[in-house]
Amino acid sequence: MIKRFLVTIAALGLGLAAPVETVLAKQPTAKPAPGFTTQVLALPAAEMPGYPSFGREPLMAVRYTPASGERMHSAAIVFVDNGPGAHPLDPDSATRFAAERLAARGYTVLSLFTRTARSFVNMPFKAGALDVAAALDYLEAQGHEDLILAGQGLGTSLVAYYIANEKDAALDMPGAKRVKAAILLSPPADEPRQWGELSKDYDARIAQAQRLVAESKQAHTDPLYAAPMMSANQLVQTPAMFLDYWGPDADTRLSKWMPKIAVPVLIVAGGADKSVPAGRIEELKRLAPASTSVEVIAYPNGDKAFTGLRDQTSADIAKWLTQHKLDVKPDVTIQVLDATMGDGSRQAGTFYAPATGADPKKPVFVLQHGTAGDVLHSATQWLAWRLAEAGYAVLSPRTRMSGGRGLQVSTYAESAVDLGKWVDVLAAKGLNKVVLEGHSLGGMLVSNYAATGDPRVVGLIYMAPTRDSPTRAREGAGEERYAALVKRADDAVKSGEGAREVINFLSYPEMAKDNYKPGEGRKPVSGDTALAQHFLDFRGPNALIHTEVIRKIKVPALAFSATGDPLMTHPFIEDFASKYGGKFEVVWYEGTHGARESKDLVAKNILDWAKKYFPQ
Predict the structure, then answer these.
(1) What are the φ/ψ torsions at residue 135 (nearest 5 degrees)?
(2) Structure confidence at residue 231 (pLDDT)
(3) In 3-state terms, what secondary structure has residue 587?
(4) Do both 60 and 112 map to the same domain?
(5) Torsion sign across C-alpha atoms 421, 423, 429, 432
(6) How many CB atoms within 10 Å of residue 337?
(7) In sequence order, what are the residues at sequence separation of 6 or more whose Cβ sits closer than 8 angstroms to the Cβ of residue 203?
(8) Rg (alpha carbons) of the chain, rounded to whole number
(9) From CA 205, how far away is CA 414, in angstroms rounded?
(10) Given this model, what pLDDT does residue 23 score?
(11) Number of domains in the chain
(12) pLDDT tens across 393-432, in order?
């Protein structure tokens, strides 16, 4: 039976004067949790400046994943080992027992064998930060966007050091950080003289190391043989590394970095853990004012190995992560589908669905990329994941419009036929309620198809909807330049070269905030390329006018526009909304044309809109 109560940590030797929530578990030591798989990985390790030989050796790690398979879009955890001499497979280390149990709960966990632990003899402490970065790079490449750093013992210092000193920028989320939270288990004292046998003759050994380094007597190569430095471990280091890890100015001091941690922090410790001195937890909480949240879990009788408390510790960590919206997301299946286009060619698409399968009662979303998009990039990938996690089926299709970046190789009429073929594929799956979403030029494509009156289309979503293309081209290039482009394209078509002649032109939209600079003229926002026949179809004098097409559409629509998108203006969106034939809602957000800075917000607004118009 688990009892929860409030207890004064000072009475337990942990030094907190204020009550905190504590979990006391009365159960025997549990066996390793079932439901996970284990894999040993060799990751590329970044070279440490001044230590080239260690850059050639891979970083070893143990990956724990749910037995049902890795949920790549869910949060993932990097566990950092307990510092010099520690090993990630130690049964008494959280890098093993917590990793196994959290993986069984659905998390992907990567337990590192850092150079801080393995090569401490002549590798500086901060080399571990490069190892942490390599682990985060790997998980981000797997699709994990929300990453958590966890460390035990001296590993807590490496976690804090990384968060405080590294930029940690997300690859596909401009301005966002990858590390969303930190977990510190058994954080030790800053002062090495408090660490068991290391306290013996500490000042004398520091002086000896400083003397050897100052004299440059092979300070980086000759080991400094000393008494046991931590617990029963025999640690042998060069004088320089001895100072780097244990000296008075060492970066291993956790308190040095706590003030710079801005993410939520969970501190977990046991009352019987001698490595956590009285007052330590109170001190760490006080030193982390920049953090959005610092929470503490203390186990009155817990030791450093969390003996008898490993199930409870893992459960409490998972609960805390859930409270910070870092829980395990629902599983998603991805299937590659093929469809025959109007010209008989075959195109592929990615079909996302909840693990329970597509629900025919709910609308299915079709995400149409724009000129520079693809089904494996942009919203057709990150938005598909999020909608499928929320219980909706999603199709990201390729059509004859798909191809090289910026090159239009199809017509409006052909794209409408191709979208219809994909809607037929969905109908064959029993999915007859379709919401079409189009990004940028994709918005024009879905409008054109919806205007055909297909009753299976029940809604539209526009992400950065395209202006009337002929108008944009004429205003952007200027009347004289536009007329010359049209004549060149028309001559190519008449001579039979319409599918070979390439039209290159720059766009100069007036709405770009920084488009006009004194003495510099207009600033081009983008370059466009099209075959002559397609240039006429999309931007010629007789091309379709988007704001005329949408008058025919009666189904509800939702539009997204960004304040930092040079192709969007409030007057244009207001004009677009006024001409739409059905109910129309607009959401403005801070960001750019691709909405990558606002992924969760975009998904939430779409889900709210879908529940409003298509309630279950």
Answers:
(1) -65, -40
(2) 31
(3) strand
(4) yes
(5) negative
(6) 16
(7) 193
(8) 30
(9) 79
(10) 34
(11) 4
(12) 999 998 888 876 555 667 888 999 999 999 999 999 999 9
Q: 486 or 56: whose pLDDT is higher? A: 486
The mean per-residue pLDDT over the stretch 463-478 comes to 80
| Partners of 61 in beta bridges | 41, 112
What share of the chain in percent tops pLDDT 70? 84
Eight-class DSSP state of 291: S
pLDDT above 70: residue 512? no
Alpha-helical runs (H) found in 239-378: 239-246, 280-286, 310-323
Residue given tokens 């203390």 in the structure block: 298
Indicate the pLDDT class of residue 518, thresholds 50, 70 and 90. Answer: very low
Q: Side by side, which strands form the sheet with 457-463?
A: 332-340, 346-354, 394-397, 364-368, 434-439, 457-463, 557-562, 584-589
Is the separation of the CB atoms in 563 and 493 below 8 Å? no
The residue type found at 72 is M
Q: What is the mean pLDDT of residues 523-528?
A: 58
**β-bridge mates for residue 184, sequence order:** 151, 267
Classified as helix, coil or strand, 39 is: strand
| 407 and 346 within one domain | yes
Domain limits at 486? 469-539
> Cα separation of 616 and 611, whole Å?
8
pLDDT at 318 over 90: yes
Number of residues that make up the chain: 616
Q: Which helix (H) or strand (E) holds 258?
A: none
- Give the three-class secondary structure for 486: helix
Neighbour-count burial of 234, counting CB atoms closer than 10 A to its CB (0-12 exposed, 13-18 middle, 19+ buried): exposed
Q: Within this chain, do residues 336 and 208 fall inside the same structural domain, yes or no?
A: no
Tokens describing residue 433: 């309620």
Q: Using DSSP, state whether 585 is helix, strand or coil.
A: strand
- Checking if the pLDDT of 10 tops 60, the result is no
Q: Is pLDDT above 90 for 289?
A: no
Encode burial over 122-160: b for 16+ CB neighbours within 10 A, e otherwise: bbbbbbbbbbbbbbbebbbeebbbbbbbbbbbbbbbbbb
The domain boundary residue, chosen from 492, 510, 539: 539
Q: How far apart are CA 36 and CA 602, in angstroms?
A: 33
DSSP states of 537-584: HHHSTTSPPHHHHGGG--S-EEEEEETT-TT--HHHHHHHHHH-SS-E
* Token pair for 134: 């390599």
pLDDT tens-digit map of 556-584 = 999 999 888 877 778 888 999 999 999 99
State the CATH number of the domain containing residue 418. 3.40.50.1820
- Amino acid (one-letter) located at 515: N
